[in-house]
C-alpha cells in the first residue's frame, strides 16, 4: 500500500525530533518499490542512536548486518534466503504479513506495591519483558525547577539469551536504556517528552516526584525496544502516587510534606507514545521482527508516536545508511500503525487491570 511523504521537524541538540504534527504531503510514494541505492546525504549511525546526516560516497553505502546481532542467531545460508524470500513475498516464516504484530499479552501489578508503585509484564510472542515504577520525593533540577525527573534503566537477564551470559548483556542493556529515554523523554528540557515532567512537580524549585523506571528482559526473541515501551506504558498506567499534603513554609525554607496512606492519584498515561520499530530486510520493512529476522536486517528505525500523532522520539539501529526520503516513508508507516497499536495496548492494559481488580 502506498503511503504519502511527510513534513518533519528538525532534530534538537540531543538528537530527538522536536514535537511535530505529522502532515501528509501530496504525492504518494510506494516505499516497497525503492530499488536504487541511497545517493548523497545518508543517515548512518550504529546501535540505537539519534539520527544525523552525514555526507558519504554512494560506493560506501553498503547494507551490512550488524555483527553483534548476526552472532546471536546462527542460521544456514538456506534459512537466510528463506527468511528474506518470505519477507519479499509478504509471507513471513511464522505466517504473518510484513505489518502484522505477534499476539500481545499484558499483565499488570506483577510486583508487590510494597516494592514498586506500578509494574507490568508484556509478552510479544517469545519476547518477555517486565517494567516497574518506583516513585520517591526529590528536589527538582535547578535548570528545570518546575519539572520532576524520570530515570530509565534496563537489564537483560542472562537467561534471556545465551549471548547475555556473563557481561554479554551489559552493552545491549545500556543501548536499550538510552533508546527508551530518547523515545519517551524527548530532549534534556523535556521538549517532546511522552511523559509530562511538569505533572511531577509538587512545589516549584523545592519538591518533585522522581520516577525510577526499571526494565527487565526475561526472554529475548526480537523487538525488545517496542516491548519495553509497551511495558513502561502499562506500568505507568498501573502506578498510583500518594496524595501529598504540603505545609506552608517561608520562601527560603524547605516545606514539610505528608504522604497519604489512603488517597492515591493515578498516573496520567494519555500522552505516553507507542514505539514502532521498522526493521529493513532487503528493500522491505517489517514490524515486530523476531531475532532471526533482525539478524538479516540492514538497519532499523524506531519511532515513538503518541495518540495525537506527534513524534516524541526517534532512534536508528544498524550500520547501513538510509536516505532521508526512506526515513520519511518509515515515519509515515509508523504513523499509520501507531493508532492501531495504541488502541490494542490500551485495550490489553484495561483488561489486565480489570483482572487485577477481580483478584482483589
TrEMBL record:
GO CC, one annotated term: nucleolus
Entry keyword annotation includes RNA-binding: no
Exoribonuclease phosphorolytic domain location: 101-242, 271-334
Main subcellular location: cytoplasm
Origin superkingdom: Eukaryota
Recorded family membership: Belongs to the RNase PH family.
SUPFAM superfamilies for the chain: Ribonuclease PH domain 2-like (SSF55666), Ribosomal protein S5 domain 2-like (SSF54211)
Biological process, per Gene Ontology: exonucleolytic trimming to generate mature 3'-end of 5.8S rRNA from tricistronic rRNA transcript (SSU-rRNA, 5.8S rRNA, LSU-rRNA); nuclear mRNA surveillance; nuclear polyadenylation-dependent rRNA catabolic process; rRNA catabolic process; TRAMP-dependent tRNA surveillance pathway; U1 snRNA 3'-end processing; U4 snRNA 3'-end processing; U5 snRNA 3'-end processing
Localization of this protein: Cytoplasm; Nucleus, Nucleolus
Protein name: Ribosomal RNA-processing protein 42
Molecular function as annotated in GO: mRNA 3'-UTR AU-rich region binding
